[in-house]
Amino acid sequence: MSSIPMLRQSRSLFLRGTSRVTDLHKRMMALCAYDDEYLKARFAGKVAICTASTSGIGYAAAERIAREGAKVVICSRRQEKVDAAVKKLRDQNLEVSGIVCHQAKKEDRQRLIDFTLRTYGGIDLLFASAGVSPFSGYMLLVTEKQWDKLFEVNVKSTFLIIRECVPHMAERGGGAIVSHSTTAGVFPEATRNLNMPYAVSKSAVIGLTKVLVEPLAQRNIRINCMAPGPIETSFLRRYIQQFVPGETGLPKQAYDENFMLRFGEPEECGSVVAFLLSEDASYMAGEIIPVCGGINLREMSKLL
């Protein structure tokens, strides 16, 4: 007989719990609606430059930032790619313009900055995304020409585009910058001689990011770094083909090192770039943010 009151009490608690869950769901839906409106205007009034941004991670970041309200200038080395990417983004009613720019060329960088100032009136945000990998193989086999190209594009031009944008950001009261490294730059020794020269250059980008924190902070500019792992891009496909001809999926070695057992998507990097450039990351500077399916955690565990 005592079980009947207990059942009634359990039913009452269940209904009360269900009501609470329903209320929580309503609040969460309202919060999501708020967040959706907030994200659409997170970069309202801001002007962003995204380099190497007509495909892959650069494009995904430019698209995300534009969707959140920024006026975005994209660029790459080929006019036809710039035209195609601008059209694709403008077809989404996004405020985007584009210009040809080889980030390693001084005159191209200046033309990019002048074009941005002329088109949108200033610079607030920068995603320095350009990078190359002209050599994949054992460290001691890289040629001097390949080594020079790695550091000219991946390190030197990254520093220079940042330095050249800083005065224009400072004129507008500050800004935010994201550099582009790689998980291999966090743990270059884990590349097992497959792509160490590239990893070393990207390690330098991490060091560059960290040493720029103080001088940029004095100008109210934050800088952080995104370090992606295996992301579904043509860049990664070309890299894989060099070692596993005909491979169309994730190589077994990558499965062994990746908790997620899949490639990442460029959009999963674009959202991180947008966050780091936004005021939501206002107390973050000099941070290296891996987007890599847990690879870096696996490698870190080996060092403990």
Automatic annotation (TrEMBL):
Molecular function as annotated in GO: carbonyl reductase (NADPH) activity
The record, for Gene3D superfamilies, names: NAD(P)-binding Rossmann-like Domain
- SUPFAM superfamilies of this UniProt entry? NAD(P)-binding Rossmann-fold domains
Q: Which domain of life is it from?
A: Eukaryota
UniProt family annotation: Belongs to the short-chain dehydrogenases/reductases (SDR) family.
The molecule here is called Dehydrogenase/reductase SDR family member 4
Annotated organism of origin: Holothuria leucospilota (Black long sea cucumber)
